[in-house]
């Protein structure tokens, strides 16, 4: 009976040989008193193990805690991407399958707009959705509480408005409490300061809420009139245009506080840095030190990120950065990943003097057992490689970075993580190193690293650079292989991408593929690009070919002529060169009357 048990164990684990026993222990199946997997990797016994003199005891867990997505992840691992299909988000409605990059972006935004419209209806009219028929109930899909329920003037009402992120209502209620002589606790006041400093003393944008109907909206923070397009959705990035106004509500409430603690001061410092008041933030940090208070790690991260804005000379920036790191050590503040990433990001603006310090920061991260993220390596590459720098760039660092991150699975930890792949591919393209590009693409396809590629625009930039280096460095067979693998499931080539493909065909003397490429150009929506169409005509009419190929070229020339005729926006204008090429192609293809 031993052999069948071994086979059964290997089937459960999905492995064979030495890893079967350890895999069974990891899965924790068939545990308890009924089955026992021995310590030997080659042995699997159903009976209870014999008593041994060994002091080491094997503990088999009675229950395995699975991740909620474990089943979906296992099913996803059994299928591969369909290279001939478009992105999965469009496969539910074949009519709306995008053919071009602008359509891809338009349909993607339309889907997001539909989701936001549904959220708006649900949250604006929650009384229409009070019945919950879902079993099991899913609270996140039910209407949110967006309006305050406590109408009295009290600290509880203030807490509720702060929780609902009602900035103006929270400030008004706080003023009413102060005028009535009602004391507000320090904790609640600090929470109000957090709200004001996060959103810059302005109402936060909601994902399900459209822009106010007024064509002009007075900015309460900057005091300027901002003209916005009617109906345009507000984005979270619009907050970055807000600046710190002198004497705003955050400063006024901070000055009215009868007592302040470290949380109060640190919140003000981070808010000032977020909205551009760098000098005021540094002065407040100096006051914090004079009052014998300590900063937290988030405040130090904000100060370190503001170093390039506080000093002008490279050596002054580096000195201030080192001083802040020393003060962290003196105050016994434990740094985190964002601390070192902020330091490296600031060093990107310190010239060549930052190279030595950046390596010291990487070594410090290793000594503290802080695992770098993709943003760490992106900053490191930017410090050592300057495209506009004179002389030979220091390119050895990219090989060391790739050695560190190969076969690793990364998770989002820093907002700048999404910049690594496109920056590294740009470096591969500048160096014209195809092997580096392959290594980088393999890292991207490891695990779920593709999630850190960013949005659709960043994906287009990455695959565009990857395809560009393919067209320059690889043979045409490999280029066409990647062309079929990427288009249209992952990449919609732009005009430059199609030009690179045409140049690769010309270099390898594979011009017989141009009629098929022209069909793709039409499908991708680039048939109205003057320079691209003229290049297609130039390649087809430059030399004579076999009669069969000349007939195919003549058909393509007639198709191009029809495109010129149907052009409604007059993007295509006949030139002497294009007319001459079309005429020559028709004559060579036996279309004398059309010529």
Describe this entry's structure for a reader.
By secondary structure, this protein is mainly alpha-helical. 53% of the residues lie in helices and 1% in strands. A two-stranded antiparallel ribbon has the order 1-2. The longest helix is centred in the first third of the chain and has 24 residues, at 101-124. The model is unreliable at 1-52 and 210-239 (pLDDT under 50).
What string, H for helix and E for strand, traces the elements in order?
Answer: HHHHHHHEEHHHHHHHHHHHHHHHHHHH
* Secondary-structure content class: mainly alpha
Principal-axes geometry comes out as: globular
> Any idea what the radius of gyration is?
32 Å
The CA-CA distance between the termini, in Å, is 84 Å
Strand order of the largest sheet: 1-2
Average pLDDT over all residues: 83
Point out poorly predicted stretches. Answer: 1-52, 210-239
Helix content: 40-55%
Q: If helices are DSSP runs of H or I spanning 4 or more residues, what is the number of helices?
A: 26
Compute the number of strand runs: 2
Strand content: under 5%
Largest sheet: 2 strands, antiparallel
């Amino acid at each position: 009976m031993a052999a069948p048990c071994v086979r059964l164990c290997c089937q459960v684990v999905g492995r064979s040989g030495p890893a079967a026993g350890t895999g069974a222990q990891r899965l924790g199946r068939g545990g308890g008193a009924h089955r026992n997997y021995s310590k030997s990797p080659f042995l699997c016994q159903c009976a209870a193990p014999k008593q041994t003199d060994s002091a080491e005891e094997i503990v088999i867990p009675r229950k395995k805690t699975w991740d909620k997505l474990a089943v979906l992840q296992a099913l996803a691992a059994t299928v591969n991407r369909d290279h001939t299909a478009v992105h999965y988000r469009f496969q539910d409605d074949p009519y709306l399958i995008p053919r071009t990059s602008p359509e891809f972006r338009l349909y993607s935004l339309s889907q997001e707009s539909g989701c936001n419209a549904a959220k708006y209806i649900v949250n604006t009219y929650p009384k229409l959705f009070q019945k919950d028929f879902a079993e099991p109930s899913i609270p996140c899909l039910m209407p949110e509480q967006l309006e305050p329920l406590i109408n009295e003037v009290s600290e509880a009402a203030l807490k509720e408005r702060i929780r609902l992120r009602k900035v103006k209502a929270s400030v008004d209620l706080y003023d009413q409490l102060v005028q009535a002589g009602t004391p507000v606790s320090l904790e609640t006041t600090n929470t109000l300061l957090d709200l004001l400093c996060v959103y810059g003393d302005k109402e936060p944008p909601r994902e399900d809420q459209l822009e106010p109907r007024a064509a002009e909206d007075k900015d309460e923070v900057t005091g300027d009139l901002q003209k916005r397009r009617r109906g345009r959705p507000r984005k979270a990035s619009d907050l970055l245009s807000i600046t710190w106004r002198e004497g705003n509500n955050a400063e006024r409430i901070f000055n009215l506080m009868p007592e302040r603690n470290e949380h109060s001061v640190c919140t003000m410092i981070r808010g000032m840095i977020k909205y551009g008041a760098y000098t005021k933030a540094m002065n407040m940090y100096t006051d914090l030190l004079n009052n014998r208070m300590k900063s937290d790690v988030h405040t130090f991260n904000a100060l370190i990120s503001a170093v390039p804005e506080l000093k002008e000379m490279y050596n002054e920036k580096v000195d201030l950065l080192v001083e802040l790191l020393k003060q962290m050590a003196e105050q016994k503040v434990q740094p985190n990943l964002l601390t070192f990433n902020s330091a490296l990001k600031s060093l990107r603006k310190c010239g060549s003097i930052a190279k030595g310090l950046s390596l010291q920061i990487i070594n410090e991260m290793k000594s503290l057992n802080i695992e770098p993220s993709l943003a760490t390596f992106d900053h490191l590459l930017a410090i050592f490689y300057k495209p506009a720098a004179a002389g030979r760039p220091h390119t050895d660092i990219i090989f060391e970075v790739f050695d560190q991150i190969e076969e690793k699975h990364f998770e989002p930890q820093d907002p700048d993580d999404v910049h690594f792949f496109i920056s590294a591919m740009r470096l591969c393209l500048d160096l014209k190193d195809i092997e580096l590009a392959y290594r980088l693409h393999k890292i991207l396809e490891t695990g779920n690293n593709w999630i850190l590629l960013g949005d659709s625009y960043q994906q287009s930039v990455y695959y565009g650079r990857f395809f560009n280096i393919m067209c320059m460095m690889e043979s045409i067979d490999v280029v066409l292989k990647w062309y079929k693998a990427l288009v249209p499931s992952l990449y919609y080539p732009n005009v430059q991408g199609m030009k690179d493909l045409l140049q690769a065909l010309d270099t390898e003397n594979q011009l017989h593929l141009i009629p098929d490429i022209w069909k793709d150009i039409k499908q991708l929506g680039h048939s109205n690009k003057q320079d691209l169409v003229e290049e297609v005509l130039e390649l087809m009419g430059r030399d004579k070919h076999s009669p069969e190929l000349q007939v195919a070229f003549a058909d393509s020339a007639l198709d191009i002529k029809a495109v010129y005729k149907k052009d409604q926006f007059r993007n295509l204008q006949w030139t002497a060169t294009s007319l001459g090429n079309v005429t020559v192609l028709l004559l060579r293809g036996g279309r004398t009357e059309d010529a």
